[in-house]
Design the sequence.
């Protein structure tokens, strides 16, 4: 998978793309990222890439020319193009899975007030938001997207198990987890986790996941209920108990 990132703030990406899990994924050749500095394509002697919006208003907008030239340098007309913007579709599991299964895409990061609309129109940009709040630029959202996509690429995480058990991907939020010591500040780890009985441990985890999801994210819980799940008799009994509580 290759991700081409167009930005005016190259330096923001270094520690994230080079660090930890993403850095290792790049070394293994599982994900390739290329940073393109939009300022390199400016024809202005001061490398200017922004100007004031027509019609007035605060802030500056990315001008078409440097963006068009930078985009053409990576063949963006033939590629899936994503622009990070609070105006976009809110990123979710479905989009992340789809991107993780693709060969790659182009990511454009705007700063200040955004970009000239003609850039988005000419390249058929899809707008993607990371949530209903506004950040100062698209760089952090782009890194959030890359991180979420990268960890779904087979081989990026240590074991594929860590995905299947996980919050969201199973449709339920994750159960509570504990590590050593067994007792800390008078608080004990649930007894069932020590017995070595994997069936009982699984049922305890399943129940915690159900209760946490029902309480915190009733929307996810309803979606999980509506989707077809093969449950064992014991899982059905637990689900029945959880559903029968107010
Ligand atoms: N740029 C600024 N805010 C953003 C958000 N919430 N999502 C994506 N891109 C953004």
Sequence:
């Amino acid at each position: 998978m290759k991700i081409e990132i167009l930005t005016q703030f190259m330096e923001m990406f270094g520690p994230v793309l080079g660090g930890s899990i993403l850095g290792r994924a790049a070394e293994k050749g599982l994900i390739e990222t290329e940073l393109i500095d939009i300022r390199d394509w400016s024809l202005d002697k001061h490398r200017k890439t922004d100007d004031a919006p027509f019609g007035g208003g605060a802030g500056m907008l990315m001008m078409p020319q440097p963006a068009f030239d930078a985009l053409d340098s990576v063949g963006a007309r033939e590629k899936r193009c994503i622009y990070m913007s609070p105006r976009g579709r809110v990123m979710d599991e479905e989009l992340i899975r789809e991107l993780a299964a693709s060969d790659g895409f182009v990511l454009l990061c705007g700063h200040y007030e955004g970009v000239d609309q003609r850039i988005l129109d000419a390249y058929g940009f899809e707008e993607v938001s990371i949530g209903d709040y506004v950040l100062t630029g698209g760089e952090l959202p782009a890194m959030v997207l890359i991180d979420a996509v990268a960890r779904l690429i087979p081989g990026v995480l240590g074991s594929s198990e860590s995905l299947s058990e996980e919050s969201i991907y199973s449709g339920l939020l994750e159960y509570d987890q504990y590590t050593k010591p067994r007792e800390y500040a008078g608080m004990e780890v649930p007894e069932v986790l020590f017995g070595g009985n994997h069936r009982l441990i699984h049922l305890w985890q399943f129940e915690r996941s159900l209760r946490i999801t029902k309480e915190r994210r009733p929307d996810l819980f309803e979606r999980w209920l509506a989707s077809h799940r093969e449950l064992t008799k014991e899982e059905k009994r637990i689900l029945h108990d959880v559903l029968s509580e107010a």
